[in-house]
Each structure stands twice: as structure tokens, then as C-alpha cells.
Amino acid sequence: MGNSRVGAKRHLYLCAALAVIAGATPALATPAIAQVRSFDLAPGDAIDVIPAFARQSGLQIVAPAGNLRGVRTPAIVGQFDARTALRRLIRNTGLTIGSDNGAVITLKTLPRTAERHVDVQLASNAPVGATPAPAPVTAPQSGGTDTGDIVVTATRQSQTASHVPISLSVYNQAALDERGIRSIEDTVRFTPGVNFSSSYGNTSNISIRGVNSDVGSGTTGIYVDDTPIQAKSFGYGNGNVYPRLFDLERVEVLRGPQGTLFGGSSEGGTIRYLTPQPGLESWSGYGRAEVSGTAHGGANYEVGAAIGGPLVKDKIGFRLSAYYRHDGGYVDREDYFTGQTLARNTNSQDAYVVRGAVTFAPSDALHITASMLWQKTALNDSNQFLQVLSDTSHDRLVSGQPLTSPDHDQFYLPALKIEYHGAGFDVISNSSYFTRNNTFDPDYSTVIPGAFAGEAYLSAFPDYRAYANLQNRYHSFVQEVRVQSSNPTARLHWVAGAYYSHLSQYANEQIIDPDFGQITEYAYGASVLDATGQSLIDNKYSYLQNFHTLDQEVAVFGDLNYELAKGLHVSVGAREAIPWYTTDFYVTGPFNFGTVQGSTHGKGHPLSPKFGINWQIDPHDMVYFTAAKGYRVGGGNVPVNSDACSADLAARGFSSAPTGYAPDSLWSYEVGAKTRPTNSLQLDVSAFHVVWNGIQRNVYLPDCGLQFTANLGSAVSNGFDLQLTQKIGRAFTLTGQLGYTNSHYSKTLTISGDSGSLPIVRAGDQLQEEPWTVVVGGQYDFEAFTRRGFLRFDYNFIGGHAITPQLDPSTSSYNAIVPPMQSYTLLSARLGFRIETIDVALFGNNLLNQHPRLASYTDGGALFLKSSTLRPRVIGLNASIKY
Questions:
Q1: pLDDT tens digits for range 704-729
Q2: What is the pLDDT of residues 465-497, one digit of tens each?
Q3: What CA–CA distance (Å, rounded) separates 436 from 377?
Q4: In Å, how far are 412, 706, 804 from 703, measured between CA atoms?
Q5: Separation CA 574–CA 19 (nearest Å)
Q6: Are 47 and 93 in contact (CB under 8 A)?
Q7: Model pTM?
Q8: What are phi and psi of 292, to 5 degrees?
Q9: Which of 327, 649, 784, 798 has its CA 20 to 30 A from that of 345?
Q10: Is residue 237 a contact partner of residue 472, using CB atoms and an 8 Å limit?
């Protein structure tokens, strides 16, 4: 009886989300036709006429607001197909259709009048009466400038950001360029409530609103268009890959669980990279070049170009882009014993990106887009430096590693998107196959002595060398089909869909350590065989690991939003998924103290409901409340030899390491407001409360040098985020973001074992060390020497001090050697001019030349503490063109 009640409750949420949809879709059998509408538009200024046209046509239109004033449009009276009417409206006005993806139409100026502009959403429900008059040069709209008028697809439907009832930040390509944002780390620094951290080697982790875990499945969804690319983390050296920020339509950062529409691993939120679509009607292009220098480091430079347009007007269009960037190193590598310089600026990095897309539109109703994204990054050496050899006050960052630790990452992402636009509904199919190969060769010349002898550098063996070869391969097929409403004036908006994913992931590791016998003789006075019970494999391998996991998932989801009364909307959604996994493993070698092999498997049945209510008080002011559940799937562990690691395990309350870990889940509650109290001020604010249970957490065994994942404890996260844009006069724009996250364990956790053992975590211990994010930016637009120019500054503060279990001496997780992260400030500035059609800017990043201690770890003892920090001061010149 109990199980049947649970099952009935589980299906009740999903039925509520889909029932109205099922009853509202008899039109699905109606063939798609070009809808004829009645228009009654008098001649007038485009700034006034185009919003009216958007309302009468039902189209979503993005237009260059700075160039609309002074443009006259003709009368449009009578019955026309909406797109035909639009072409007549803008004929001979200097405006043209830049892109049309079936959901959103972008207007742009013809090349002869091209100039830098703001993209303003003129949706059918978004009048522009409050749009400020254009300044001589306008700042681009972004999550840090004015999200209210940017079109986003956070709800899988095109909406203006100011009308989406969730907390989000949006950065279009212009905003990324204005701030000099080139990487995911840069994006995070400008975004409240988001945290980026580095773990062992070159891996990294991103978390939103304190939902922070660097093992297991990701807590933040990473999407390229409609394809998830986040990785499941196990073992060493694997983590997420992030697309390089060139030729993007926009980046959306969605805070809070997005499981209903974006599935598992979106517990804390989702980051979406939206790429430009091929143009079917007109040509467009974008180019960027940059050169800069790093203080006491190497040179940085980049070049990229993108072009797109119709091959057959209205029928076939394409988009092609290519990009290369080199980041010079700033860490030198020296011999620990002799002080000899082995390499200058050893941590340089190169990135290559190529993307192509082709759209075929056999009719106005059907669009088929095939795309391919390829990216390759090559990091020559780790960014970590050895504290004892370095002097950050004099820009001296030195690694004492005998060998380099190169990291090479490459992925391919082919995708096929089919869009069918019917009478009041859209059908969208997304198929993709993500292939990624990551090779990481960390220097273990200090890891092995540290793990077995307690000293990373042994003077008795100055020539000792060992390294690992870690290969991580991902093959992921994803298929999603969804049906959604498309009438922007309807009271009911809905989305329903089905999803399937098949992820095969391999993690292989070899430790090449032919002189391991020197370490066992030093540490134990015994040979490798006598000390560990196993000899070196082929006289050189001290550790071999073959690990394979197959994760599959099927899911159905639905989401609907209904307008109860004017401006008052309620929403309900749910996603029901069946994920299952199988893990096979084989680990052997003296470093593992023997051979362990086997397999594990698991299956889940998570339901992710979502509820919300929002009141659009007027076109510029909205308040909302949402409650949503998030989850992430379980998985298998790289095995640990319980006999050899018994002391480590016992100290943490374990008799043996678990072979796998279970799913975890959370509930998030958010209240927020998006308002424009004056024509010159946009303000978005939200507060949240998150309850997280069964957290997947890493357990590291320092004496063994091994680790595993377990479900340990529960946590609560409370906080808020705020974003504002204030226009001061016609020439100055002030932006600000403020975020605070208090994410802490809610219960003390002690694993059964010795009654005198310390707890793994205590109630109140924090999940992340940096609770505060503060961003202040300003831009002054001016005209000098007949040139339009701008002066911009951005100030970032990230920090505050929080006690994590690793910093709490009353827990068994405490590490007395590794110090806390340091708070830091960043100041950057840009001075730019427009020369003909090219924007040129002189810029400086990290102008205060801050070197905070960020992620730290040690291979053995406080003397061998390694840390990472920010890139030192960068001064450079940038040029870009967009038409």
C-alpha cells in the first residue's frame, strides 16, 4: 500500500504538468501554414512603429535601438503573412533582417550605416516606452548591464530576460568583449552566486548557490545550445570542459535547479552557451584580434573570424568561425635542489576552435540545422607554484617540479536540430554526439615520495622521476524531442518533451615509476615486493587503472504557465527520469597494494517537480516565487584496497571504501523581483533557501594517496543576489552585482566506527570558502577628435572567510597544512575608440597585480605547499569588427 501511494504521488506531479498540454494540443494535427494577420500601422518613427508591429504580428524581434530613431517606416495596412509584412515595413529604411531562427528575428543596419549598438528586445509584450534615448556610444546589454531587454531561452521558449521568473545573468558577445571576458573563470567573477575552484592538477569545478561538490556527477549543467557536456568526475584529472568565448550569441547563467527542463546535474543551476545561427536573408560577420603582455610572464595573443549568410536566399544559410588564442605562462620551473632554471613561463596554453553550421529551410515552417563544433586546448604545464620557492610580492612564481604536467583536451560536437513551426505550436528535435579526449600527464616525482615517505623532495634521490598518464574519454549521444506553444499572446504557454542519453566514459591511468624501489627502500627498508606485496609491472608501472562506466537515462518532462488574471501567472512542471549505470574496473600495481577488479551497477527513478507563481505588475515590474527539486545520479567508485588503507579508512570511520555512491537531491525555494522603477534604473534581486540531502562528497586517504566518493551529510544554503544598471545622464552607465551564499552542513556526521573518532563534518561547516561576490562597473561614452569612444572600469571582490571541514580542527577532514583561500580584488579598465568600422581598445586586467592564494594542496608537509593564483597584471590592445 505504501509503495502504491508513493507511486501515485510521483505521477501526480507529472500528470498535472501534462494534462492541460494534452488537452490543449489537438492543433498538433493541423499542418503548419504561414499565418495571415491584420495590420494597421501608420507611417512613423521606427522606434515607435516596430514595437507596435511586434505586438500585431506576434513575432519576437531584436532591433538596434540606437539606430531606430530618425528612421521612418511606411504604412502597413491590410492582411499579410507576418514576415512578408516585416520585409515591407523595413524596405528602404537602412534596416535588414540579420537572422531568423523561426523564434526570434534580429534586425540590423546595412553595412554602410553599421555602428556599435544595443540589442533591445521588442517583443509583443515588451513595449519600449522606457527605453532611454541613445547615447553617442551605447554600452552593450548583458547580465551585467541590462538583462531586461535581452531575449533568452532559459525556459526553452524565447522571452525577454526581465519577464523570466528565475534569477539569471546574460552576456551577449558585445558584453563579453566590453569586459574582456575570455574564459569561464572570467564569467564567474562577474556573476553573483557562482563559484569557480580548481582541484588537483588542472581540473576545475563550478558551483552555483553553494551547491558545491567536486566529485560524482556535476551539480551545474554545462550546455552548448541544447547539448549537455558536463562530465562525471571519478579518480584524478578529469573534470568539465568549457567552450571558448568567441562568436557566441550569448551566455546564460541560470541560478537554481533547472532539472525540469535540463535534467540531472543541474542541481545548482545551468550555464548555457548559445551559438549564432546561420543567416538565411543577409550576411553578417565578426572578427577579433588581440595582443597583450603578462607582468613577468609571456605574451598573449589571439585572432578569430566568423562569417555567415545565405547561400540560397531564404532557403540555405551558413555560419563559419575559426579562433586561436595563446596565453603566455607566468610560472617558472626550477630544480628544487640546485635552483637551476628548467623552463621560463612554463604554464603557457593554446586553444583552437572551429565551428560550422548550415541551415536548410525548405519552407517557412521547417528549418533543419546541422552543426559541428571542434575545440582543442593544450596546457603546457600546471598553474601551481611552490610556495617555498616563490615570492608573490615580486611576481616570482616558481614550480619545483622536475617534470612538466601537460594537459591536452579535444572535443567534437556534431548536432542536428530540426524545427517545425505549426499553427500555434513548435516541434523541436535535437540530436547530438559529443566526443571528448583528455590526456593529462602529471609529474608524480613529488607525489610518490610524499605519499610513501612523507617528504615530496628526497635529497637522497635528487634524480628520482615518476609521472602518470591519465586518459579520459567521453562518448555521449543525446536525443531530445519537445513540443511547445508558440503564441506569445496566449494565456497558456507549455512545453512537453522526451529525452534519452547514452554516455560511455573511460578513465585509464598508468604511473610510470621505474625507480619506485628507491622509495620503498627509503620508507620501509624493503623492496617493492616486500613492502607492497606486488612487484612493478613490466619493471616500470607502479599503478594501472582501467575504469569504464556506462550511464543511460530516459526521461519525459512537461512545463506549463497559465495566466490566471492579467499579469498573474502560475506554473507547474515535472521531469520523471530513469537513469541507470554500470561500472567495470580493474586496478593493480604496488601503488594500489595489489589487484582489485569487479563491477557495480545502479538504477534510479528521480522525479523533479517545479512550482511557481509570478505577477507581472506592469511591463517593467515583476515579483515571483519558485520551488524546484534538483537531483544528480549516482555512480561507481575507483576501488580502494581496504586492507592496505585500513588505518586511513578507520581514522574516517570506514571499515572499507564503498564500491559506489547513491543519487543526491535538493529542494530550492526562491523569491525575487525584477523592476525598472525609473527609465534609467533596472534592478533584479532574489533570495533563496536550499535544502540538500545525501551529498556526494570526496573522501581522500592521504597515507594511501587514494580517494573515493560517498554520500555524506546534508546541507542548507541561504543567500541572495542583486543586479542593477543605472544610467546617469546620457553618457555614463553604472552597473553592480552583489551575491552572498551561506552554504553549510546542517548536521554533524560521524561514520560508525571507533566511538572516539572525530566527525567527518560538523554542523555549521561551510561547503565553500568564498561567500561574497561584489562587482561594480562603469562606462563613460564620449566623442573626441570626431571619434566615438568609451572609458570603462570593472571592480571585482571575491572572498570572505568561511570554515570548511578541511579548515575545522574538530573534524577528521581537517588538514593542518593547507591554509584557507585568500579574498581578492580585481580592477580592470578599457579605453576604446571607433576607427571607421573597427573598435580598438587599450585594456588592462588585474591592474592592482593581485596574487591571492587560491586552491592549495601539498604532496607531503607544509614545506611542500603548492598553490594557484590569478594571472598577473596584463596590458594589451584589442581590435574587433562586427557587421
A1: 767 788 888 899 999 999 999 999 99
A2: 999 999 999 999 999 999 999 887 889 999 999
A3: 12
A4: 39, 8, 21
A5: 12
A6: no
A7: 0.83
A8: -155, 170
A9: 798
A10: yes
